[in-house]
Amino acid sequence: MLVTGGTGLLGWSLVERLAGRGFEVYATYHATRPPRVEGVSWVRVDFSDPHEAGPLVESLRPEVVVHTAAYTDVDGCEVNKNLALNVNYVSTRELARACRGVCEYFVYVSTDYVFDGEKGLYRESDDPNPLNYYGLTKLMGEVAVAAALRDYLVLRTSGIYGCSPGGKRGFALDALGKLSRGRTVEAFVDQFLSPTYAPDLAGAILRILEARPRGVLHVAGERVSRYGFAVELARVLGVSEDLVKPASIASAVLKARRPRDSSLDTSLARSMGLEVRPLREALRAFAGECAEYAR
Asked: How many CB atoms lie within 10 A of CB 278?
C-alpha cells in the first residue's frame, strides 16, 4: 500500500489503520518526519515538484495507491496558483500515469469544492462547476486519473476534520480549542457542507479497498452549516451554545469564493455499506481523541 499525504488528517488515520491490519505500508510526508508507526515506511516526497511522483511509484511498485496528498488551503490556492496546479493536478497526473501496468487499484481523494454550491446534496452524476482554483485543480486531478487508469476510484468527500501530527488545524480543531477554553467562535450560518471525521473516512476507505468500486463515489457526513456544526460541538462539550456567534460568508473578506452549499448526497455509498457516524457521535469521538491537539 502507498498512502500519499500520510501525515495529513485523513492520511494519518488511514496509515494507522492499514498498519494495524498488517499491510505493508509506505506513506509519504513533506516537512517534518512523522512519529514512528510499526509497519510503516516513511518516504519524503515534495509533490510541488511533479517529477517526484513517477519515480516514487517506479521504486516502490505498490499494488494499491491512496492519493490523499493535496494543497488544500483554499485561499492559498487562489494566490499560489502554480503551486496548486503542480500539487493537485500535475503530480496527480504523473502519479496516475506511473501506476499504469503497476498498480492494481488507485483511490484519488477529491472534494465537494468541485461543485458551485447552487443546489447542495450533490450526486455523483451531477456536473462539476468549481468556483475557486482549489476546486478547479482537484477536478483536473479527477480527469487526469480517469484518463490514465481503468481500476480507479474518485472519492469525493467534504470538510474533513480531525487531528494528526502533521495535519493542518482547520475550523473544527480551532473551534474545539476555543470552546473548550470558554472562548467564542464565529461560524457561517449561510455555508453548508457535509463535515467528515477523518477516522470515519479512513474506515470507509478500508472497506472500499476490499470491494474496489470504480468510477466516482461520495462518502461524507451529514449536511450542516458551519454554524450548526459549531453549535453541535458546543453541546457535545457541555458548554454554552451562546459561545458560537453567527457570521455570514456573504460579508466575509476571502480571497477565494466558497460554494454556498457543497453538501454531498451519499445514497450510493450507503447502499454499499459505506456509512460514517452521525454528526453528534463523530463529534464526541473528535472531542475526546483530538483534545490534546486543540490546546
From this structure: 11
Cβ atoms of residues 233 and 175 within 8 Å: yes
- Average pLDDT of the residues in 235-255: 95
Cβ atoms within 10 Å of 270's Cβ, excluding its own: 13
Give the C-alpha separation, 239 to 249, whole Å.
25
Q: Between the CA of residue 95 and those of 54, 61, 90, 217, 253, what are the distances in Å?
A: 6, 12, 9, 20, 36
Query: Given the DSSP bridges, would you call strands 2-4 and 224-225 parallel, antiparallel or unpaired?
Result: unpaired
All residues at 6 or more sequence positions from 264 whose CB lies less than 8 Å from its CB, including other chains = 112, 121, 122, 156, 157, 158, 194, 218, 220
Q: Are 274 and 219 in contact (CB under 8 A)?
A: yes
pLDDT digits (tens, 9 = 90+) for 147-199: 999 999 999 999 999 998 876 788 999 999 999 999 999 999 999 999 999 99
Give kind and range of the element (H or E) at residue 215. Answer: strand 215-218
Per the DSSP assignment, residues forming a β-bridge with 246 are: 187
| Grid cell locating 114 | 468541485
pLDDT digits (tens, 9 = 90+) for 205-242: 999 999 999 999 999 999 999 999 999 999 999 999 99
Q: Do 97 and 50 contact (CB within 8 A), yes or no?
A: no
What is the C-alpha separation between 79 and 52, in angstroms, rounded? 23
Euclidean distance between CA atoms 175 and 231, whole angstroms: 10
104 class by beta-carbon count within 10 Å (0-12 exposed, 13-18 middle, 19+ buried):
exposed
Question: Cα–Cα distance between 124 and 120 in angstroms, integer?
Answer: 12
**Known catalytic residues?**
134
CA 57 to chain centre: 22
Interval 268-280 mean pLDDT: 95
